[in-house]
């Protein structure tokens, strides 16, 4: 299967640069995975398409303000550091730009010395391992100095950091937001709950792989980066009881999907667990846990459009995307949504 099988034409003007004022006012395309038929609604209509006894699965990860702008201590050269993964305590795997300015032993200073890091090692693909030094609480300093690590296709500055967080974000650790969840408001979640829909919560910390393009022509040669996930006993039970009682499991986003499919057995029951997953879902994959999916519109030739195509069929998805372009839907992180039923 070729990367080019998932290509579509996307005008640059359809890439959403800023979030809507009202999260739930995004447009919503409903795609029937069996027939390929589409409907066009507003996201807040989602409550009418969920049934009592269904289970909505949310990813509670919280995005770190992980983009730090600093300078080399010895030369004053500007350096940008993106936190990717905490190795232990104050040691992090990071992406540094320009990499040539951050060799082993170099120290980078942020916020007039409020925070410093020293490069201790160079990992695969050139990522830098750094050790931070500071006085106080790291998370508070990061919140003060850090910026949200917006995807490279968003050129506008984000005025409110919280607009790149879901309203239910709880567990810090992501380098990117689980963007399908950005459409929900507390009021909408309350309406869903009042209808008798179960709400389960899990965590998958989104890594840099979200931004990495598929370079291999044959998608089977693509290597996914691993990401940390966890599901506790209480939420596994909510999901499994829904399955036992014949309700639908509705994943909010590709991150929830990947977590559920990593934790599920062949009958679709999930176990309480935590660990690392590098699951790669593409057409031909047999879903075990996920029945339906709420998701955004994704990049051409990305692993995300491959996952969506695995659930709804490649031709159905590409036809729906063609229609979305024609109807000028907004694409990517701050864009509109799709509900695959």
Q: What can you see in these coordinates?
A:
The protein has 341 residues and is of the alpha/beta class. It has two domains: 3-63 and 160-340, QueA-like (3-Layer(aba) Sandwich), CATH 3.40.1780.10; 67-145, Beta Barrel (Thrombin, subunit H). The chain contains six helices and 17 strands. The protein has helices spanning 138-145, 186-194, 233-244, 253-263, 303-312, 314-326, and strands at 27-31, 38-42, 55-59, 61-63, 67-72, 78-88, 91-97, 107-110, 115-122, 128-134, 171-174, 198-204, 227-231, 249-252, 273-277, 292-296, 337-340. The strands form three sheets. It has a nine-stranded mixed beta sheet with strand order 2-1-17-16-14-3-12-13-15. A six-stranded antiparallel beta barrel has the order 5-6-7-10-9-8. It is globular, with a radius of gyration of 20 Å. The two termini are 25 Å apart. The model has no long low-confidence stretch (mean pLDDT 95).
